[in-house]
Amino acid sequence: MIEYAALAVLGRVDPEISHGLALRALHTPLAPLPGPVRSPHLDVDLAGLRLPNPVGLAAGLDKNASAVGPLMRAGFGFLEVGTATPRPQSGNPRPRLFRLRRDRAVINRLGFNNDGVEAIVGRLAARPNGIPVGINIGANRDSEDRAADYAHAMRAARKCVDFATINVSSPNTENLRDLQGEQALPALLEGAMAESGDLPVFLKIAPDLSDEQIGAIARTAMENGVAAIVATNTTVSRDGLTDRRSDEQGGLSGRPLFARSTRVLARLFHETGGEMPLVGVGGVASAADAYAKIKAGAIAVQLYTAMTYFGISLASRIARGVDEMLAHDGFASVAEARGIHAADWLRQ
Ligand SMILES: Cc1cc2nc3c(=O)[nH]c(=O)nc-3n(C[C@H](O)[C@H](O)[C@H](O)COP(=O)(O)O)c2cc1C
Question: Considering the entire predicted model, what is its pTM?
């Protein structure tokens, strides 16, 4: 009830102010923080990380790791904070965050506003024990050597996190997505891997890639020791939108991204022969959505946008729902259900 009332109020406030208030509210006793949802069906191994459940927080909601403690108790199986860049930066001018209520979507062009990797890592180092927490890393907008930025951020973060995600897929830093290309990606990964020590390194990719590009990225990731691929970031497509805000520039997330990002996921599953752990992100708003991502090839999922409409308690509701669906279908684990519908997505 309290969460429902809070959502009604926050829905009327400027989206960025509302976001800040919601993060602060997590530190109050009113926040719904049930602790990680656990069950034998939900226990997942993600690239060597033990997750109590496969429902994770996507990067961007807690860019500065300012609410990691409460978020660790919100029901998720793992968290990703950031994007963190080597130097702090303020991002693009406001307004830069838009709700597309009719489409259950969001457009953002925040542009990696963050406190810088050192400050963020300092907060992460002080977090309590609990679920795995990773950091998403990126390059500064005005960087002259973007590959070096990833290596720098990796070096700063590696001792304080459980995994690091290389983000080469944000549409809001000019030309950043070119780093996914066959020329740039191997060198970037090599430099970042050299600084990662034993840390599992994930790679987060865009949804707006051709099958050939997805195949090339999958091969490069496998050759360079990437531990998991996160699919996907926001899209620059505007297909199927009805909200009047649909022509705002930036990355689109939420319901309209679901099918597009799930097709990329299934393609990755196919290209990697099921060998690469995959995290499915994009438009997850229910247990059925999360289960569909698992059946398309994900061993874990992440979400962000749906929580702006349905609240933070959505994470635990989804985890419990996936638990029931696995049991109903006779699967002993997420791993058993993983990828069973991947081929269907490739035909779409
Ligand atoms: C407001 C906003 C900010 C985001 N910031 C980041 C970010 O800093 N780094 C990143 O890798 N992804 C970022 N994302 C993308 C999400 O992590 C996720 O990949 C995408 O939104 C699709 O998931 P969703 O439909 O559940 O939101 C952001 C998304 C939103 C809506």
Answer: 0.97
